[in-house]
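Priority: medium. Attachment 1 of 2:
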């Protein structure tokens, strides 16, 4: 076994070869790093903005502009940062419940936080369970990103305060039945005013009450009250139905009787006027020819009277003993 000599030619050649290999390996690593850096820079400089989005571009943390939908390039390595904001999408916040799975048959859950949101005091000091949603859009991406630390949390606080204020101005009956539309419109108006006051950059589009009820222990009593109201409405409707059947018929009969009376009165008056005019004409004729007119009236009267008689017996003043010959039956009828 030969002894190791660090100053020998063989050792020097081996050291030189090793040094050259290390240098070649280092150059490969540097080249690979440069190539990887270039590829990463090229990849990170490209970004795509979807049709419903708007890209907010920051350079060293300062806002320099917005990117419309489509492909774009930016300075890589963290110099430019792009935050995509869904300005064309309708967003929604749920209060009093949480949707765990959407679809044809959605699933919901109600935790303690959701129950606290939904429990409200009405204007007549009753408790109502109010579940609602708020639909909105992002009107100003800059305000949405830079004005608040969490604009969604701010919106939830504003919406909850607004709904509690509006429900507190209505009775339990209005909240459950007739006042739902008014509550929705008033809550939306107040929420828009709050959003503009705090300059959130959001556009409130809809406030919709989904489910409004009373606490579970009160629900049986409320159902009984609603059944009583429905029974009352049914009886009122039946009474009006009967009223509409009887009153118009009675009114029609009364009008018919009035018209018949008016017609009879007109007939009687016209007949009386005709009789009076006829009598006046007869008087005038009687004064002109007394004997002829009297004879004519007598003959006309006898014609009417004798025309109605069934049996007639004609006698003159000289007839004697007429009664036994007639053989009148009992009661004086021939």
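Attachment 2 of 2:
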């Amino acid at each position: 076994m030969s002894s190791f000599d660090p100053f020998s030619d063989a050792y020097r050649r081996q050291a030189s070869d090793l040094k050259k290999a290390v240098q070649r390996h280092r150059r490969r690593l540097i080249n690979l790093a440069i190539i990887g850096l270039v590829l990463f820079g090229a990849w990170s400089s490209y970004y795509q903005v979807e049709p419903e989005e708007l890209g907010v571009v920051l350079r060293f943390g300062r806002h320099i502009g917005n990117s419309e939908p489509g492909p774009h390039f930016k300075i890589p390595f963290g110099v430019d940062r792009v935050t995509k904001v869904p300005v064309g999408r309708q967003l929604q916040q749920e209060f009093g419940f949480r949707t765990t799975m959407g679809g044809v048959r959605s699933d919901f859950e109600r935790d303690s936080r959701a129950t606290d949101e939904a429990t409200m005091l009405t204007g007549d000091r009753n408790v109502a369970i109010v579940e609602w949603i708020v639909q909105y859009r992002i009107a100003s991406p800059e305000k949405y990103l830079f004005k608040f630390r969490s604009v969604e949390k701010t919106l939830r606080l504003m919406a909850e305060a607004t709904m509690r204020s509006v429900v507190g101005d209505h009775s339990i009956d209005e909240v459950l039945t007739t006042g739902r539309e008014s509550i929705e419109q008033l809550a939306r108006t107040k929420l828009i005013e709050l959003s503009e006051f705090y300059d959130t950059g959001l556009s409130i589009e809809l406030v919709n009450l989904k489910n409004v009820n009373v606490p579970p222990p009160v629900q049986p009593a409320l159902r009984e009250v609603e059944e009583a109201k429905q029974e009352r409405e049914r009886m009122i409707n039946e009474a009006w139905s009967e009223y509409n059947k009887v009153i118009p018929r009675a009114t029609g009969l009364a009008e018919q009787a009035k018209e018949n009376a008016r017609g009879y009165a007109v007939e009687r008056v016209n007949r009386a006027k005709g009789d009076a005019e006829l009598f006046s004409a007869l008087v005038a004729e009687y004064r002109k020819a007394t004997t002829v007119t009297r004879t004519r009236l007598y003959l006309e009267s006898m014609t009417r009277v004798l025309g109605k008689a069934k049996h007639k017996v004609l006698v003159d003043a000289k007839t004697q003993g007429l009664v036994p010959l007639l053989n009148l039956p009992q009661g004086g009828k021939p």
